[in-house]
């Protein structure tokens, strides 16, 4: 097979929407975005390592903080955490449990928090 034919095949496959080896993409909160009372959004979803969570929100009002279980349970920041503040954050899930909340203005106490379990075989 010549190079022009191989390039053409690749272009056709990409136009047809064939996915690459990356994970599924989830917009947290669906159309409503990252907001209060979102704690149950993960129910019924099967996440795998490599899946991507997109957090959409107003960065003047909220943020996303990746925390450990103790911090998640108590809505406090422990020693190990990562803050996202762009308003359009893309987070790739590692294997295992991940915990997120907004640390602004009591958001966590208003259930602006999710717990995500990513087990099984990754997409990659």
Automatic annotation (TrEMBL):
Q: Name one GO cellular component term.
A: plasma membrane
Q: Where is the Phytocyanin domain?
A: 24-120
Task: Tell me where the signal peptide lies.
Answer: 1-23
- Report if keyword Metal-binding is assigned: yes
Among SUPFAM superfamilies, the record links this protein to: Cupredoxins
Q: Which InterPro entries match?
A: Cupredoxin (IPR008972), Phytocyanin-like (IPR039391), Phytocyanin_dom (IPR003245)
Q: Which GO terms describe its molecular function?
A: electron transfer activity; metal ion binding
Q: Keyword set for this entry?
A: Copper, Disulfide bond, Metal-binding, Signal
* Entry superkingdom: Eukaryota
Q: What is this protein called?
A: Basic blue protein
């Amino acid at each position: 097979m010549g190079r022009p034919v191989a390039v053409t095949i690749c272009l056709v496959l990409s136009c047809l929407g064939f996915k690459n080896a990356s994970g599924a993409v989830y917009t947290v909160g669906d159309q409503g975005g990252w907001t209060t009372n979102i704690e149950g959004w993960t129910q019924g979803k099967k996440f795998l390592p490599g899946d991507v969570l997109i957090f959409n929100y107003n960065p003047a009002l909220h943020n996303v903080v990746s925390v450990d279980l103790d911090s998640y349970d108590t809505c406090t920041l422990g020693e190990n955490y990562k803050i996202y503040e762009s308003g359009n954050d893309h987070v790739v899930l590692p294997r295992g449990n991940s915990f997120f909340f907004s640390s602004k203005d009591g958001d966590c106490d208003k259930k602006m928090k999710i717990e995500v379990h990513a087990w099984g075989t990754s997409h990659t």
